[in-house]
Amino acid sequence: MVVAECYPIFGSEDTADLFNPDELIDLFLRCSVDGICIIDMENRFIRINHMFTRIFGYNEDDLIGRKVIDLPIPVCLNGILSQVKNGKAFTNLITQRQHKDGHILDIAVSYSPLRNKNEEIIAITAIYRDVTKEISMERELKRTRELYKLITENASDLIKVYSRDKTILYASPSHEKALGFLPEQLLGMHVLDVIQDEDHESLKRMAKNLNDSGEPQLLQLKLKTKDNKVFYSESTISPVYNGNMEIDSYVTVSRNITERIENDTALRNLDRLSIIGQLAAGVAHEIRNPLTSLKGFSKLLKSSNSPEKQNEYLSIMSDELDRIDMIVNEFMSLAKPQAIQFERGNLISIIDSTINVLRPQAMLDNVQVTVKYPKEDNLELLCSPNQLKQVFVNLLKNAIESMPHGGNVSIGVRKLKNKRVVIAFKDEGPGIDKEVLKYLGTPFYTTKDKGIGLGLTVSNKIVQEHNGTMKIDSQQGKGTTVKIEFECI
């Protein structure tokens, strides 16, 4: 191995003609990327380089011969300079200094003693680096972290961070008040451990949509509390990306909507009771007909001695009783309390059930209801069948009542290519004015004399909870069409 020959720069008489120490010092000062100054033992400036001027704004004419204390300096500097004169060095002291124009700089400075060839301290060198940007970024990062910490620790919303495998990495203190769990008790748990079992499938579908689209998702979830109560939440789930733009983790912000769910339930019950009251007359009329038949055949049964005639009468009476039972069951299914419990439901069966409920009112109002189904009859939805029945009853009832002198209501079901299905309710009523149309769906706004103004409000809410859409088209003199779109299984 060849070692390059090394020449001394200072102290050799043989090389004095090759190297001028002053020129070497000038070259070093000019080429340094840091600001450098040399201070004598009386604390006077004797040299500065161009980077010192660039950092602080002072040139040689401003400083050479002046004492350090003539400039705005930290109080502790005199003590530091005294220690350097005694041989101590200081490295990367972070301090603040003032620019010539008055603005404040963040500076990393190192002080060291300058010795002659006899090891005597003859001056002090100070090396400065402007770290204002870096320190500002650190301050901003620290301020942001403190702000985020302040928000998460004081927010009433539930904030969680969890990994790609759904393990909880962070939980805000608000979980203790809302769910009864201390944040540290949730760390390491799987997200499904704090969600009610019936919502697991909804969460999995949401996760797939989130990973496919990369967009934040909003959904309602029922969370578990420590004492096994149900906590209704509305959660926004957002992806967190790493440097390779891959999803690294997830952030959820959940809000307590238990009171809102209870209010929605109360509104639905109020709407349902209103429907039941208005349908009662039609149902009573529909039941009266088979009851009349039962009375007549029961008398004939008493007076007849023929076994064949008795069997015939009993068969007719059994059919009439089945009809009464069907009417009452449909009526009661609409009346009973309905928790939002999603299950597989056949759309055609739900529509047929709705028509059976409203057939008596349609007959009284001389309205014909026609239905057009697609060829396939296995249209299944993930839904709450009773909730959808309430929606369809509202829409069909509105269509019937829009034609007081009779007419036709057509219900069309059409399956789309994107695994979605459209149900259209079309009437031959007078239509709705554009100015009135924009207010439909507003709570307690109604165009009926006996309406309570909740039907469309509740219906639209139920449709949204089923990830569906509802659209109303109407022209005066041409009737009204209401279209609802759902996703099939």
Can you give me a brief rundown of this structure?
This protein is an alpha+beta fold.
Features:
Heat Shock Protein 90; 5-stranded antiparallel beta sheet; Beta-Lactamase; 489 residues; 3 domains; alpha+beta; disordered N terminus; 17 strands; 42% helix
What is the correct CATH architecture of the largest domain? 2-Layer Sandwich
Please tally the helical runs, counting DSSP H or I stretches of 4 or more residues: 14
Q: Over the alpha carbons, how many angstroms does the gyration radius reach? A: 42 Å
Q: According to CATH, what is the class of the largest domain?
A: Alpha Beta
Task: Give the CATH topology of the largest domain.
Answer: Heat Shock Protein 90
Number of strands: 17
Please report which band the strand proportion falls in: under 5%, 5-15%, 15-25%, 25-35%, 35-45% or over 45%.
Answer: 25-35%
Number of domains: 3
What helical percentage do the residues reach?
40-55%
Descriptive notes:
The chain contains 14 helices and 17 strands. The longest helix has 46 residues, at 258-303. By secondary structure, it is an alpha+beta fold. The protein starts with 20 loop residues before the first helix and ends with a strand. The chain has helices at 21-31, 50-56, 60-63, 77-85, 132-154, 174-179, 183-186, 200-213, 258-303, 307-335, 347-364, 385-401, 434-437, 455-465; strands at residues 35-40, 45-48, 90-98, 104-115, 121-130, 158-163, 168-171, 217-224, 230-241, 247-256, 343-346, 367-372, 380-383, 407-415, 420-426, 469-475, 479-487. Helix content is 42%, strand content 26%. The protein folds into 3 domains: 13-135, PAS domain (Beta-Lactamase, 2-Layer Sandwich), CATH 3.30.450; 155-256, 2-Layer Sandwich (Beta-Lactamase); 264-487, 2-Layer Sandwich (Heat Shock Protein 90). Helix 9 (258-303) packs antiparallel against helix 10, helix 11 (347-364) packs parallel to helix 12 and helix 12 runs antiparallel to helix 14. The strands form 4 sheets. It has a 5-stranded antiparallel sheet.
